[in-house]
């Protein structure tokens, strides 16, 4: 079905209070009407088979029965189809029962998994997510029986997440004495690890500061400081526990002492589920080799599977306009000198969408494609806005045009003044930095929306560190900003009519509007009317991302760029990265947007290398 025609009477955007109220906890499921119809037809067909078999049984004459070699075969043959048909035919279900799912719809629609590879989601019934967390056998057995566990924490867990003490729900936490010794060794300095060590020490002091020795042995309530979710107790190692370990292991090493404590606790509490929690992979391998249950720390993971990360793009089903075209409204509005078309639609797919999510429909029958962005959602009613085509040279941004669908979505977000926070994910060569810089220059130098561009990134080297660098803050940061210099060269060469002198003057003007800042001096600052680009954001922790995003003042736009497959920060994974954290938390907000760029546009060599290497 083609796009609906424009009505004669234009409509207007409704306020959220004018929409009909939607029911809470309503999940989108496939309409059961079609399934019920199929079930009814199946039941009718089965009834016809039963009636035919009964008629055949009645028409058999005694003479025919006598002429057969096996007289019992005729009634048995007549009764078997009736029993089989009765068992197969389901009873007609009422229309209000949303349990049945048509086989045709399931086959036509793919599961709703959003792959990081760039393939957008297809709207369908929610797929089952698999638990990719590797739990120990002891932990799984305790989950089945419903018993509480005793988690022995390694030092790296506390230094990685100072609030980890209060994230084990109803289970108890045990701290060996060597863990406290290692915390004391790491508390000095200005690094993130030292700050976390000092914070966890303050928390422990607040928990046990007013308790005598006998009560410490009984355990301290973790909910004492106001953490209501922590319903377990905190135990300390108050006496020497001799755990038998293999003779080859050096007894003075901290890891081996913690393993000895776990072995001693197992012998002291034989019926209790005791699990070692450590961020150190080798520590967990060593524990499992000794027959001790060990697990990773999972509570810092935003997602258990990075393939389920929100992509910001969804592909509409082929029959979208047939199911949602009834009672559609459309109108045009002019903003910033451009005319935009809006559609107000109602249908079953709408509740699964999010505000500022991009939708597209590319029919295979030759009809026109549809690209839109969700602007409002209320119940089963949504307002879709058509997009500006930045792939056309007439709409180029600082001489840059989009080369694929995802880049066009990204430029619509970057050039939208109502969108304050933009996140772009994608592998190397997808154009994240180039698009962000082009949009920033266009809005700083042409439309004067922002005063200047501020660029920052995490200074985590891929290889060995090159040591101290001389010069000012910007000169020290210049080796880390090679990617921006490369993209600025591309943007400067786009103007062929300017000549060498004109390009040199333009380059000086651009340099004066771009400031390079270090993350180390961001705390306490406030940026007003700035275009802030955070590159390599996958190397940031959730706390660092919060520190940066909260620097935004009035009129500031923040863009986070990164590739979660290239994380260089120790102890950070795809599930616990700060970039994953903000993508998951900001989705659905009216003033933020996210796009996962799919296709590399750097060169054929770079694209082929990213696929095969």
Automatic annotation (TrEMBL):
Compositionally biased residues, Low complexity: 73-85
Annotated segments matching region Disordered: 1-26, 63-85
Recorded superkingdom: Bacteria
InterPro entries named in the record: P-loop_NTPase, PhoH, PhoH2-like, PIN-like_dom_sf, PIN_dom
An MF annotation (GO) of this entry: ATP binding
Keywords: ATP-binding, Nucleotide-binding
GO cellular component terms, semicolon-separated: cytosol
SUPFAM superfamilies on file: P-loop containing nucleoside triphosphate hydrolases, PIN domain-like
Domain PIN span(s) in chain numbering: 149-285
Stored Gene3D superfamilies: 5'-nuclease, P-loop containing nucleotide triphosphate hydrolases
CDD domains referenced in this protein's UniProt entry, alphabetically: PIN_VapC_PhoHL-ATPase
Family: Belongs to the PhoH family.
UniProt-recorded name of the protein: AAA family ATPase
UniProt organism field: Undibacterium piscinae
């Amino acid at each position: 079905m083609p796009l609906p025609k424009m009505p004669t009477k234009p409509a207007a955007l409704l306020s959220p209070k004018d929409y009909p109220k939607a029911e809470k906890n309503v999940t989108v499921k496939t309409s059961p009407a079609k399934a019920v119809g199929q079930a009814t037809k199946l039941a009718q067909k089965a009834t016809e088979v039963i009636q035919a078999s009964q008629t055949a049984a009645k028409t058999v004459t005694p003479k025919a029965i006598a002429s057969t070699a096996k007289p019992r075969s005729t009634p048995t043959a007549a009764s078997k189809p009736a029993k089989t048909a009765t068992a197969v035919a389901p009873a007609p279900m009422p229309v209000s029962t949303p349990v049945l799912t048509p086989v045709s719809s399931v086959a036509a629609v793919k599961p709703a998994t959003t792959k990081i590879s760039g393939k957008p989601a297809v709207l369908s019934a929610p797929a089952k997510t698999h638990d990719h967390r590797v739990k120990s056998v002891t932990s799984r057995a305790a989950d089945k029986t419903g018993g509480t566990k005793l988690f022995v924490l390694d030092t790296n867990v506390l230094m990685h997440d100072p609030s980890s003490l209060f994230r084990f729900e109803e289970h108890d936490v045990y701290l060996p004495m060597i863990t406290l010794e290692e915390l004391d060794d790491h508390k000095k300095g200005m690094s993130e690890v030292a700050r976390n060590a000092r914070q966890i020490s303050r928390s422990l002091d607040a928990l046990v500061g007013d308790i005598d020795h006998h009560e410490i042995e009984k355990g301290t309530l973790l909910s004492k400081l106001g953490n209501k979710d922590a319903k377990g107790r905190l135990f300390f190692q108050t006496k020497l526990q001799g755990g038998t370990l293999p003779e080859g292991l050096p007894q003075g090493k901290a890891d081996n002492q913690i393993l000895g404590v776990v072995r001693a606790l197992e012998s002291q509490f034989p019926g209790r589920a005791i699990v070692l929690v450590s961020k150190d992979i080798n520590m967990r391998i060593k524990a499992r080799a000794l027959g001790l249950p060990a697990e990773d720390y999972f509570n810092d993971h935003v997602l258990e599977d990075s393939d389920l990360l929100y992509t910001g793009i969804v592909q509409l089903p082929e029959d979208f306009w047939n199911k949602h075209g009834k009672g559609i409204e459309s109108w045009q509005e002019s903003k910033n000198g451009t005319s935009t078309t809006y559609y107000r639609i109602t249908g079953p797919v709408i509740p699964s969408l999010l505000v500022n999510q991009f939708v597209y429909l590319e029919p295979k029958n030759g009809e026109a494609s549809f690209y839109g962005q969700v602007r409002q959602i209320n119940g089963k009613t949504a307002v879709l806005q058509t997009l500006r085509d930045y792939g056309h040279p007439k709409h180029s941004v600082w001489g840059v045009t989009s080369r694929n669908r995802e880049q066009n979505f990204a430029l619509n977000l970057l050039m939208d003044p109502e969108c304050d926070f933009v996140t772009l994910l994608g592998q190397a060569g997808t154009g994240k930095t180039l698009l962000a810089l082009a949009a920033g220059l266009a809005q700083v130098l042409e439309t004067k929306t922002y005063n200047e561009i501020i660029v920052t990134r995490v200074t985590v080297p891929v290889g060995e560190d090159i040591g101290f660098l001389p010069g000012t803050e910007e000169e020290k940061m210049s080796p880390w900003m090679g990617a921006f210099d490369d993209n600025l060269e591309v943007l400067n060469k786009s103007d062929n009519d300017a000549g060498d002198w004109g390009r040199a003057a333009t380059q000086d003007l651009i340099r004066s509007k771009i400031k390079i800042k270090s993350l180390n001096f961001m705390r306490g600052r406030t940026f007003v009317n700035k275009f802030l680009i955070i590159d390599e954001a996958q190397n940031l922790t959730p706390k660092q991302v919060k520190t940066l995003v909260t620097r935004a003042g009035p009129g500031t736009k923040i863009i986070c760029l990164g590739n979660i497959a290239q994380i260089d920060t120790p102890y950070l994974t795809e599930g616990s990265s700060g970039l994953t954290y903000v993508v998951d938390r900001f989705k659905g907000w009216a003033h933020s947007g996210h796009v996962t760029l799919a296709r590399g546009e750097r060169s054929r060599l770079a694209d082929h290398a990213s696929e095969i290497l």
